[in-house]
Amino acid sequence: MKVSRIANFLSLSREHPWELAPFSEPLATGGTVSVWDTGVVCFEPASPGNKDIVISCGIHGNETAPIELCDQLLRDLVEGRLSCRHRLLLIFGHPAAMNQGVRELEVNLNRLFSGAHERGDSPGLEQQRAARLELYVGRFFGQRSGAERLHYDLHTAIRPSKYEKFAIYPYTHGQPYSRRQLAFLRDCEVDTILLAHGPTTTFSYFSAHRFGAHAFTVELGKVMPFGQNDMRRFKAVDHCLRQLVSEADWMPAPLEPGQIRVFKVCREIIKQSDAFRFHFGKDVANFTAFEPGELLAEDGEHRWRVDAQREAVVFPNPAVANGQRAALMVIDYPLSGSELD
Ligand SMILES: O=C(O)CCC(=O)N[C@@H](CCC(=O)O)C(=O)O
Ligand SMILES: [Zn+2]
After folding, report:
1. Virtual torsion, Cα 154, 159, 164, 168, nearest 10 deg
2. Where do the Succinylglutamate desuccinylase/Aspartoacylase catalytic domain residues begin and end (predicted)?
3. Phi-psi category of 220—alpha, beta or left, where left has phi over 0 and alpha has psi -120 to 50?
4. pTM value > 0.95
């Protein structure tokens, strides 16, 4: 059997972290697999099913478990151990940050989408990468209409989480939430959902808002160095993504009440200055709850206190740049049937 050049695509992308000349190969199971750029590879089956699927990982270079999961998925697809039944765009987001084992080089790539990469006078390498990833997602979804558009942007979190696997559901501008997608995430053992409360500049919001995709930021566990992940913890999501990609009409069993817990983002704490600090320990886990009136953070004259309802903190990070999100605060939010479709 002809050896695939694309099987080692992750290594090839890390050797060429900013640019890679396109090339294609036939798919062992029929169709073509094409490298579009470093970290961007498109699977076009001979007779594609009705889903256009984007799976992205490594938007933050130190979030290695999803990168290792997608690397093996890629190898099994190009070497014929797994069939590709739908169009699939696989993205390894930030090879340069992977090479340094860091979240970002100069700016957070996941705050540069929906055109945010054009702000400021001189676009750096990460801004250029965000612009290209936008272009590739647009090219991929733009090649046909009528297919079901999906984008799972796979991450891991800096801190431990009270709920290990959770997903951010990008703001839907009043559109209903998808029962089937929540059921899919449940099958992935992603049993906690955060409903965003407004537009953001994240990759998943870009795909959702610009292309109407069912798109999610999926937090699968804890940040670990390459090779130190316990991949058994990712078996469910790996199995579900493989079923999704390789079966024509796979769908999860219906969502039942009580199978997922839902929070709604009630506010973002935006760091204003270097004086910013939290009023809780640096090891506080995601989803730690605070009672009404508790002081959360201060920044010069500014104080953030919990309002009338218990709030939980997610993604607390005092090291973000000034003007960036230092934490999300969320409240319990029992989704009603009328908000689901
Ligand atoms: O653990 C952390 O502090 C951040 C983990 C991470 O990268 N989360 C994403 C969430 C994106 C979203 O809100 O949809 C991020 O911060 O980019
Ligand atoms: Zn991340």
Report:
1. -50
2. 51-239
3. alpha
4. yes
How much distance in Å is there from the Cα of 315 to the middle of ligand 1? 6
Judge whether 258 lies within some domain. Answer: no
Interface pTM, i.e. ipTM = 0.97
* 259 domain-assigned: no
Considering only CA atoms, give the Rg of the chain.
20
On the CB side of 243, how many CA atoms lie within 13 Å of its CA? 13
The domain of 280 spans: 266-339
Residue 300's CATH number: 2.40.50.630
Q: Is 315 in the pocket of ligand 1 (CB under 6 A)?
A: yes
Question: Is 219 a known active-site residue?
Answer: yes
Task: Please identify which residue in the block is written with the tokens 């790539």.
Answer: 109
**How much is the pLDDT for 146?**
95
CB of 204 within 6 A of ligand 1: the answer is: yes
Residue 195 Cβ contacting ligand 1 at under 6 Å:
no
User: Which residue among 68, 104, 219, 311 is the active-site one?
Assistant: 219
Residues by chain with Cβ below 5 Å of ion ligand 2: 60, 63, 155
Q: Which of 271, 333, 336, 273 is CA-nearest to residue 304? A: 271
Give the ligand whose atoms come closest to the C-alpha of residue 222.
Answer: 1
